[in-house]
Structures are given as structure tokens and as C-alpha cells.
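Message: A physicist's question: would you kindly supply an amino acid chain plus C-alpha cells?
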Amino acid sequence: MSISQRDLRKISILILLASFIIFGNVFAQESTKEALDKGIEYAQKGKYAEAISEYNKAIEINPNYAEAYSNRGNAYAKQGNLSQAISDCAKAIDINPDLAEAYYNRGNAYGKKGDLLQAISDFTKAIKINSNLAEAYSNRGNAYTKQGDLSQAISDCTKAIGINPNLASAYSNRGNAYTKQGDLSQAISDCAKAIDINHYFAEAYYNRGNAYGKKGDLLQAISDFTQAIEINPNLAEAYSNRGNAYAKQGNLSRAIYDYTKAIGINPNLAEAYCNRGNAYAKQGNLSQAISDCTKAISINPNLAEAYYNRGNAYDKKGDLLQAISDFTQAIKINPNLANAYCNRGNAYTKQGNLSQAVADYTKAIEINPNYVKAYDNRAIIYYKLEKNDKSLADVHKVEETPEAMKITSKPGEIQTFTGTIAEILFNNDPMYGNRSEIMVTDDKGQKISFIVRTGISVSSLSDSEKTYTLKTLRKGDRVTIEYMTNREELHRVMTIKLTI
């Protein structure tokens, strides 16, 4: 059977069309892959706008390209556009329900949004699809840390390290969990390992700074926070926590600067407002302190420390009703906040409600059996109520606490302490025995409180002809103090000599 010229032309056209379709699909696939690869390259350099532009090109060519949606969602999350990030990852999952990276990226977005349950759910789905996705274990561990499930957090990060021993984020996240668990040596070791793997890992320096801060090594903490800031100048939390370290050193002006810087980067960082308020209160700027704490509460109504700090400011202002209200709210949010019970006890004492004050001091001691101030204050009330046996028992309890062992000596034994006066607290209420308190910070950032009688003369050893009353001393004075204890008195430190 012969084929006509007309039939030959039809066959040639069909072959040509098939060729166009085949080569067109190949070209489209190459173009979408090229756009995706370019987007990933831009994202790795932190150029997220350019990355999104490339992902858009890939999606225009192939509207069902799940990987492009997933990666675009990740880029949006890096920009802080979490709603769009979640939407893109959801689209990727609709197209390909077995794309582990889409669940992982969406989990990261939910984590940044604060939806920890959904974040953990997505990380778990990613792990179910790809059990070797180390990053999903690491970030799920981080979410568990934020939830307070530290054992599960450490387990997940350890699993991630087992899969990928060079995953710096897993060591850093595990270090963060160990810090919250109180294992500071292991925390510092893990963060150091993360830094060894990646010298430019800001979060690892930040997490190690937190561990050093809890350990009391403020100089090293400040150094690590500073390094984190140099690597990532937009890490608001590093400024805020460096501010905390400066505040503990007594450098309130520098602390306020850091808190303000943190707020400028992230106006919704409630902790920065809360801690700046605390610093303002210590400077005596009570109105600003109350304003900052109120702002923190408006951002995060469950931030117990903000109510606690505002309560302290109201107490100093003399508004005892509002102070008690704030301390009560702090306790409602965090029933284990011993300081809130103790300071509410102080406010009740000033109101004359001694039975409620004793109950609060007792609760504070129940939470923290080594709480010196709670024992001290309860002992004073018992003394005023002529319950001398109970008063003396509290005094002896104070002497047995680790804190007291650091600052007291045997009766009549003189010890010395050199540092800078961080704060001088005056309390002329006869109920407190007309006592005052000098807070001194040594060169390592350690604070020791010296309790003395208000109005006592302190002789300058550098100038024997000159005497100083307590009120002539100033914050920032460099001092050397000789002190000894008298255990028969309620106040442990009764005699000091001071060199200015």
C-alpha cells in the first residue's frame, strides 16, 4: 500500500509537534531546575529577595513544582513573613505529601511564630518521611526546649548529632537545653563544639553566653554576647542578655543602652522592656520602670518577671496595694517564683500584715531552702513578735546556707572584700533595726551585700583623720572592706572598716 504525499505531510507535522513537546518539556525542566538552583544559591548567601525572585520563575514555568514552593516558603520565613511561608509550604505539601523538606520548613515557620505544638508536629512528619533528616531532630529538640521538655530536647539533639556529627546547630541547641537544665559545664562544652564546627555561628556564642551568665562568669558572658552581635548585628536577644550581664555588674547605664538597642531591632521583645524597666527602677526612675514593665506585659501577658519587676517599682514608689497586686499576678503565672513571695511579704510587712508576710516568707523558703533574705526577713518579724526561738532558728538557718557561707566568717574573724559599690540601700524603718545595705561588685562580677546600721561611721584607713557616714558614700566608689560577723545578732555583718 502506497502512502500519499498528503499523508506524508501529516506524519511529518505530527513528528515535528512531538519533537517540540519533548524538547519543550526538557527545556522547561532544565529552566525550572536552573531557577531553583539559583534561588538556593541566593538563599545561602542571605539574599532572600533574589532567592524568592528565582523561585517565582520556577513556579511560573511549572505551577506544580513542590520544591520551589517549599524553598520559597523557607525564604519568606527568613524575611519574617511567616504567614506566606506557611502558605507556601502547605502548597508544596498539597502537591507532594511526601516532601519531607516542606514539613521541615513549615515547622521552622511555626516555631518562629510561637506555635510549638504545630512545629513539633511538622518536624515529626518530616522525620517519619526521612528518618535521617538531622536538622528536623535538632529543631524539634529546640521546640521541646521552649516547651520545657528538656529531656526530650536533649534526646532529639543527640539523635541529630548521631546522624550528622558536624551539625553545629544540634550542639548549640543541646547546649541551650543543658543550660536550662542547670548542667552548665556540658552546655558550655556543647556550644564550644558548635563554634569549633562553625566559627561564625552567632547562636552558639549567644547560647554559650547564657551558660556563662548563669555560671556567674559575667566577663565571659559579655564577651560571647559581643561576639554574637558582631556576627549578627540584628540578634536582639544578644543585646538584651548582654544588658542583663551589665546590670548584674552594676553598670546600669550600659545595660539600658543594650536593652534599648534590642528594642530598636525587635520592638516586640517583651524581655528587653521588662529588664530595662528593672534597670530604670534601680536608677530610681520609677515612672519609666513602670512604663517599660507595662509595655512588656502588653506584649506578653504571661511574662511573670514583668509583673514582678513592676511590683518592685510600685513598692519603691510606696504604692503597696499595686505592688501586692503585681506580685500576686506574677505568682499566679509562675507559682515557683520565690522572689515574688518574698517581696510580697515585704510589702505586707510595710502594711503591718505580719501574719501574711510570714506566710509569704515561708512559701519563698519552701521553694528555695537557701533563700537568705526570706529567712532574714522572717527572723525579724518573729523577733518583733517576741517569738525568739523561731527568730533564732531562722538566724541559724541563714548561717547554714551556701550563700551565707560565702560572705560570713567565724565570730571576730576579719575578712576583706575589694570592689566597686554597685548600690546603697537605705531603710530607716525601726522594724528593720535601722539597717542599711551596701552592695559591692568585685572585678569578676560577683556581688556581696554588707548589712550595717544606718548612720554608722566608717573610718577610712587611707586617711585616719577622716570619717564617712554611710550617706556620704556614692555608687561607683572603689572600696576595700574589712568585715567580721557577730552571730549573736540578727544581722550577720555588724562591723566594717572601709578604704576609699
User: Anything to note?
Assistant: The longest helix spans residues 5-44. Confidence is low (pLDDT under 50) at residues 427-434, 453-468, 486-496. Residues 410-499 form a domain with the OB fold (Dihydrolipoamide Acetyltransferase, E2P) fold (CATH 2.40.50.140).
